[in-house]
Design a protein that fits this description.
Order of helices and strands of chain A: EEEHEEEEHHHEEHHEHEHHEEEEEEEH
CATH superfamily of chain A: Chorismate synthase AroC
Largest interface: C-D, 109 and 110 residues
Strand content of chain A: 15-25%
CATH class of chain A: Alpha Beta
Number of strands of chain A: 18
Oligomer: homotetramer
Radius of gyration of chain A: 21 Å
Number of domains of chain A: 1
Shape of chain A: globular
CATH topology of chain A: Chorismate synthase, AroC fold
Strand order of the largest sheet of chain A: 1-2-3-7-4
Structural class of chain A: alpha+beta
CATH architecture of chain A: 4-Layer Sandwich
Largest sheet of chain A: 5 strands, antiparallel
Chain lengths: 360, 360, 360, 360
C-alpha cells in the first residue's frame, strides 16, 4: 500500500517495469460513458519514450488492453481493468548492478522498506508505472470534458535555466505538441532542444518545470479542510517520480507580494458570472474552486540515471562505483507533460463526483 | 467532508471560528502513551494570536480540554477527543459584511459549494481551525520523539524579499523561538520585524516561506506509489490556509541543476550506516525515507485581510466595497511555524505506524 | 481505530461511559438541512435507560449539545459535532472489580488488545457509546425521510422463546411504542413483560430478536461487490453491542426453502412500477436495493451483567468470583430497537449519497 | 465502487463472468512471503464448478496467473495482480434473455443502478467474481497460518432441512473434503447427496448453511467500535452471493438462552492461558478476539437459476416468461465452503496487520 488514489473515482495501479505488464483498476467510473480508446492511446503515446530525438530512443509500444468494465463500448460502472503488457524487456544490464545502489534512485529505500525488491528496470519504482495512471487519467479527462467542459493543458515551462512565457488562457495541446520539447514558446523551445542535445553528449541530465492549467472548472469543487483542491493537487503532483516541488496560483512568488497586490478582487464578467480581476489564487480559494482557471507548476529534478561512473555503496555497505550502460533520457520534461495533466484530471474528477454526491 | 486525515493515526477536525468551540478526534493513537499536556498546550500557544507585538493582539487563550481516550494520564487506544472552547467571540463586525465577499477569502467559494455558510469570523474556513490540528500534531510529535527519536523543527525562512540562512542540521526550537519572528537568523529577523511593523502601518500584509526539517526519521517510511512521503507532506502542507507552494529537498532550485550535481551519492558514516554525501533528495527517494533529514519549504501568500477598502461583489453579484475593521496580523509567518511542524508530524506518525504494520 | 463508519456520510464516535462525555463527529452531512432537534432527542430518549419499569431505573438524561456544523438551525456541510455529557457517573462500584474480568464483557479483550483500559462503567465498550450513534442516525433518518421518502421502523420481535407476529407493511413507531416492550403484538408483549419481570427477580437476563423494515427505499442503492447493501447492513448491525446474528430477507429460514418457492417473481404494480410478488430477497438483489421493503432481523444475546456471583479470573490469571451490585437491565431488547433503526439509517444514507455521486 | 475490501491488506476485485477474465489486486501484502501457488490453485479448484456429479458439470479450469508483485517466488510488498482468464464462454443463451429479468438475480437491480449491464453470464454479478477473492484469500490464509498459526476450516452444515453435527475443535479440511457434499457428518452427507440429485431431477434448487471455525487466533484482534471482528466477518460473509444471514458464536440460538447460561466464564488452561469454559461468544467479546475459536454460520438461499419456466417482466415492464437452458447447480453449498473460508481469512489478516501497527 498504497497504490490507490481517489475516493469515488478510485484508481489502483499495479505492475513493475520488467514484469509481465502493468495496469490499473478504475473503480467508480460512472456508467454509460462511451470510451474513446484512441484518445487514451494518444495520451499514452505522448508519455512513452522514443517520440523524438530529444528523448530516449527506447521503443515501448504501450498498447493498452481493457479486460473488464466496458461492454459494447460503454463503461458499465463496474471496475475497469486496463493492462499494458511489457514486451521484450531486457533485464540483463540491471542484473549486474542488482546489489549496487544507483544514486538518487529508489534502490536503497525499497530495500530498506521491503527487505527485497524487483531490481529489473527499477521494478515498481520505475517511471513506467505512470503509464497506468495515464490510461486512467485519459478516461477522467474525457468525463471532465464531456460532462463539465473542463480542459486541462500542460506544457514545459522551464528546462534548467531556460524559461518560457506561456499564455494560460490560450494555450492548447496542439500548440504544446507543435515542438518536440512540448514548450510552446518556440524560441525558448529551440534553445531547450539544443541544451538537451548538449547535455546528452556531456552524459549529464536536466531538470525543469511543467506548467498546467485547468480551464472551465466550475466553482465549488474541493473538500475542506484536508481534501482541499490545492492540497490534493499538490499530493498528486508530488506522487510523480522526480517531482520536488509544486505551486498553485502565485506559488513561491506569492510570498514576495503584498496583500494589496495579491488579493484577487471580485467583479462580474459580461455574463454576470462572479470572477476575479486577477488570479493569484490559481482558481482555488479556501480549498474550493472559484471558477477561475486552476494554475499549477511542478518542479522535476534532473534525471538520476547518468551514462557516467558514480560513487555509491552496495547492499552490504561496501563502497562501489556504478556505470549503467544504455541510452537514457537526458531530460524527461516533455514526457512529464501528460503525467501532470493526468494527475490533475484524476484529482478533479474525484472532486467533481464528490460534489455531485452533495446535491441530492 | 473531508475533515479527516491519516490512515492509522486518524485526525478529524471540527468546529468554526465563532461557534461554541473547535477540536479534533484522534482515532488510532497507540495506547499507553503518557500524554504531556503542557507540551501540547505549549505548541497551541505558539500558534495562537497575541504572542508578540508582531502578530495580532487578539487574545485567544486556546486552553485545550480532553474529553475522552485518556485514562489516568495515558492514552487508551480509543478515540481522543480534544476540544478548545471559543470564548467571547464578537461576531458583530462580520454581520455587516455577511453578504459581501472578502477578496481572496473563502466566502464566495463556501457559498458556491454549500449554498450557505457560517459567516462569523470566517467560520470553518478560519485559520483558527488549525488549532485543533496543532493539538493532534503535538501528540504525534511526542510519539515520534519517544519511539523513533524523530525531531521536527520549523522556522521562518523568508518574509517578502528577506531571506534567512538556516543550518538545518543544528536548528532547534529554542533557537527559533529566540526571536518573535521565529526567524533564527537574527540579523534578518530584525529586518523582518521592522518590515512587518511598516507593513502594519501601511495597512498591508506580507507573505513568506516557512522552512522545516525532520531529523532522525529512519529509512523505510512512505507508501509508494500514491502515498509517497513527499506526496503526503505536500498534501498536508497545502491543506494549511494561505499556503501556495511546497518543496521537498532541492525543490524548484533542483530544476536548475544537472544530474551529476543533484545526485546524492551513497557512502557510509562512521557507524557504518548508509548515508548520502549531499541531500538534494531531502531525505526521501522514490517516496520512501532514506534516513537523511527530511527538508521542506512552504510558501504562504500575504494575509488576505487588510485594513483598507477593497472592491468586491455581494452575494447577489452587485459591486461593493468592503472595509472590515479590527486589528489583523500583517504577517502570519511566525504563527505558521507550528502549523508546518504539526502537519509534518501528522504525516510522519501515520507512515511510521503503516511501516509497523508491515513487520509482523 | 476504527471508530468511523461511512464513506460520504461519515460518523466518528468517541467517548467512554464514565468519562466527561461522549459524542460523534458527522462529516459529510449535506448542507442546508434544517435539523429537528426534538426528533433527535426523542430517539435518544428511546435508547436511554429508565424509560419504564421493564428496563433499568438508572436515569441518564442524555441531553445532546451541538458544538459545530449547524448555523441558524441549518447544517452547513461542515463537520457536525454532537456531545452528550456524562453526569454524576459513580464509578466506585467498578473500582473494586477493575482487575477482575466480568464474564462475556470486553474487560479481558480490551486489556489483551490495548494493554490497559478505562474500567469505569465499561469505558469505551459500554453500550452507552451507542448514544452517539443514535444522534447521528436521527439526522440520517431525517434526510432519508425528507429527500427520499424512506421510513425505518424497528420492533421487538422475540424475547427468549416468545415470538411476535408483525405486519412489516403496516408497522409504525407509534404502534411499536404503544407497549413498553416495544413489541407491537400486544398479547405476546404482555407475556414478554411478565417474563422480563420474572427474570429480574431470578437475577438472570434474556436475549431476543429485533426486527426492522425500511420502506420507500428506491431501487439502485448498494455498491457491489463488497459494499452490497446487505453486507453493510450486516456489518452495521453486528457492530452493535451484544448482537450475535443478522438476517436480511428470508435469512436462515431461506436455507430451508426450494428455489421455486424462494424466487421473487417480477411483476408490475398499479402504477406500472416493477415489483416482486414475494419479498424473500428482503428488498435487495445482488447487493442493490430493488424498491421493495428492506427487511432485517438482529439477534441479541442475553445481557452479560448479572446480579449474581460468577466464576472468573483476575488480570493476573488468578481464579476469582465476581458479583457487581447495582440494578441492571434483565433485557435490553426494547432499548435495542432505536439502535437497529439507527444503524439501518446510517448505512442507507451513505448508499443514497454514493448513488447521487454516480448521476452527473 | 466498491470493489475494494480491507484497510491494510487491500483486495480489489475486477472482471465479469464472460469478459476476457477476472482477477484482483492485492495491495498491502507483506513483503518476503514465499507464495505457495499450488495451495492457491487448490482452493480455486475447490470453488470451481464441475468437481463432482453433485455440482454443475460446467468446466472452468480457473488457472491463475500472477502478473505483478511477486519476484523470484516471493512477494515484494507491491501490488500483486492475479488474473484468471475466461475461456470459451458461450454467451449465446444469455443474449435471448438480455431484456428479461431473471427472478431473484441482479439483472433488474443492475439496470436500475447503472442504467446498463453486461448481461453475458451474469456479468459482474456472477458468482464467478468470487474466484478472484479465493485467490486473495488463499494468500491471506498462508500468512495467517505461517505467522500466527491460524487455521480456518469451513463445512456444509445444513442443506435444506438436513443438519449435520460437526466437532468444531477437530474438524479439518481433509475431513470436509472426504465427501463431495463437503459435509463431514457422513450419514447426513449421504442424505444431502440424495436430496440434491432428487432436486436436480425436479428442476428445483436448495439452500443451506455453511459452518466455519478459525482456530488459533490470538486475543486482541478487532477494531471497536465499527470494525469489530464480528461486524467485519458479518459484512464479509454477506458480501457473498446468495448469503442471507450470518451468525457468530451462539447466533440466533443465543436469543433463546438466559444470561446465566450464555455467559462464558473465564478460567485458565493447563498452560495458564486465560480461556473460557464455554464459547457462546464465538471467540469474540466486545468486538475483539479472546483467543477462543471463532465460530460462524452463514445461510445461503436456494440457487435462483432454475431449469423451469418462471413469470417475470422485461426491461420495458412487460410481463414475460423466462426459461434459461443449460445445466445449473441445484445446490452451491459445497462450493460455498471455500468462499466462507476466504472471507474469514481476508478479514482476519487485515485485523492482524492492524494490530501489528499498534505495537511499536
Amino acid at each position: 500500500m498504497s497504490s490507490t488514489m481517489g475516493r469515488l473515482f478510485r484508481v489502483t495501479t499495479w505492475g513493475e517495469s520488467h514484469g509481465k505488464g502493468l495496469g490499473c483498476t478504475i473503480d467508480g467510473c460512472p456508467p454509460g460513458v462511451r470510451l474513446d480508446l484512441e484518445r487514451i492511446q494518444a495520451q499514452l503515446t505522448r508519455r512513452r519514450p522514443g517520440q523524438s530525438k530529444l528523448v530516449t530512443p527506447r521503443q515501448e509500444p504501450d498498447r493498452l488492453e481493457i479486460l473488464s468494465g466496458v461492454f459494447e463500448g460503454r463503461t458499465t460502472g463496474t471496475p475497469i481493468q486496463v493492462v499494458i503488457w511489457n514486451k521484450d524487456a531486457d533485464s540483463s544490464k540491471y542484473e549486474r548492478w542488482k546489489d549496487t545502489y544507483r544514486p538518487s534512485h529508489a534502490d536503497y529505500t525499497y530495500d530498506a522498506k521491503y527487505g527485497l525488491r524487483d531490481w529489473r528496470g527499477g521494478g515498481r519504482a520505475s517511471a513506467r508505472e505512470t503509464a497506468a495512471r495515464v490510461a486512467a487519467g485519459a478516461i477522467a479527462e474525457q468525463l471532465l470534458e464531456e460532462r463539465y467542459g473542463v480542459e486541462i493543458v500542460g506544457w514545459v515551462e522551464q528546462v534548467a535555466h531556460l524559461s518560457a512565457e506561456v499564455d494560460r488562457d490560450a494555450i492548447t495541446r496542439d500548440l504544446v505538441d507543435a515542438h518536440p520539447t512540448r514548450c510552446p514558446d518556440l524560441a525558448v523551445a529551440e534553445a531547450m532542444a539544443e541544451l538537451i542535445q548538449e547535455t546528452r553528449v556531456a552524459r549529464d541530465s536536466l531538470g525543469g518545470v511543467v506548467g498546467c492549467v485547468a480551464r472551465g472548472v466550475p466553482a465549488g469543487w474541493g473538500e475542506p479542510v484536508f481534501d482541499k483542491a490545492e492540497a490534493l493537487l499538490a499530493w498528486a503532483m508530488m506522487s510523480l517520480p522526480a517531482s520536488k516541488g509544486v505551486e498553485v496560483g502565485s506559488g513561491f512568488s506569492g510570498a514576495l507580494m503584498r496583500g494589496s497586490e495579491h488579493n484577487d478582487l471580485f467583479t462580474t464578467d459580461d455574463d454576470g458570472r462572479i470572477v476575479t480581476t486577477t488570479n493569484y489564487s490559481g482558481g482555488i480559494q479556501g480549498g474550493i474552486t472559484n471558477g477561475m482557471p486552476i494554475t499549477m507548476r511542478v518542479a522535476f529534478k534532473p534525471v538520476a540515471t547518468l551514462a557516467r561512473a558514480q560513487a555509491t555503496v552496495t547492499a552490504s555497505s561496501d563502497p562501489a562505483e556504478i556505470l549503467m550502460k544504455g541510452r537514457h533520457d537526458p531530460c524527461v520534461l516533455p514526457r512529464a507533460v501528460p503525467l501532470v495533466e493526468t494527475m490533475a484530471a484524476l484529482v478533479l474528477i474525484d472532486l467533481a463526483l464528490l460534489q455531485e454526491a452533495r446535491r441530492p
